[in-house]
Hints:
Blueprint: H1 16-30, E1 39-46, E2 49-56, E3 61-67, E4 69-75, E5 82-86, E6 94-99, E7 104-109, E8 114-120, E9 126-132, E10 137-143, E11 149-155, E12 158-164, E13 170-176, E14 182-188, E15 194-197, E16 211-216, E17 222-227, E18 234-237, E19 242-246, E20 252-258, E21 263-269, E22 274-277, E23 283-291, E24 297-304, E25 318-323, E26 330-333, E27 345-351
Antiparallel strand pairs: 1-2, 1-27, 2-3, 4-5, 5-6, 6-7, 8-9, 9-10, 10-11, 12-13, 13-14, 14-15, 16-17, 17-18, 19-20, 20-21, 21-22, 23-24, 24-25, 25-26
Amino acid sequence: MKMPRRQLPIGRWCGLGWLASMAFITLGLLLGGARQNAVLAYVEAYGETWQLRMTDVDRLLDQGLALYVDCDLSWQPDGWTVFFTSTRPGQPHQIVQLAPFTHREQSRLSAESHIEAPAISPDGSLLAFAANADVANDVMLLDRATGEQRVVAQLPIWISTQRWLPDGQGVVVHGIEANRYERTYMVDVATGEATRFDDPDAVNWSPDRERRAYVQLGAEDGLYVANVTGGDAQRVSDALDRLPVWSPDGRSLVFVGGTEAEQRLALLDVPSGEVRWLTPPMFRDVSLMVWSPDGTQIAFGARDQDVEPRHRAIAPYHIYTVSASGGDVRMVRHGFGEYINNFSRYCAFAWRP
């Protein structure tokens, strides 16, 4: 597949009426300034509409930024703009760079193919994105200084998400094959070499890529941490714990423990092997755990544990934060709705750097 080489068109969007309705909240976020590592961007679905929103977790100020977006977010390293995929009906998918504190669009990337999954490199110089068209799809790189685009690798999956390795040398790409199996690849951005992993946990590496965390099912169920180069794995727990997420410094893992009806967050101190609970057993369907960049707090989506059984399948999700040192759990976004396909749920969290 060949990508058209074109300059990034610059545009403006969002109706004046909608901007006016957000002006008061935006002013609140601007005045005084948000604390660093205190702003969380997220994608919320309510009914059939997916929207990009942003919340100040300190002051509990929340605002809408864009409608019709996909489940991928990537902040510019300086924290002033965020990239996302626009899926507005009747238009081809486009990758938008938005300054969320002013609602000003900085750039818009479009192409003849189905583009999505934007991810900014750690130094901010490159934008990785996917150009999906058929069973073989492209991992693309855009040089943000020159506007030059190039195909890095072609993969036999429909690409849904991408994330950079901390050293900026590669991109971890996840998607679905034509047979509906999920596959994960690591692509070397210098050589284009792609390594396939059949198990997504195989790339749940610590930031230094020396260890990985994974859940094992079978005779010895549990959560494990192992050295990438081999050797004995450390069994963290013998329960069906899940969703292990590394802290930014690689010294801790947060994961979901407890029973299905009474889930809670736990924290593993990797050097000592000590595990402690961060929250009471008060949640159901915990998902999307994300560390703040400074490693001091964790945001996650979950349903309340005390919802009546007959309402559990349609109960909304909420967004909570908890300190990595423990303490009170704070609800920073209250979900809405209790109807079939018409309740709040979340598919992407991204802390502002």
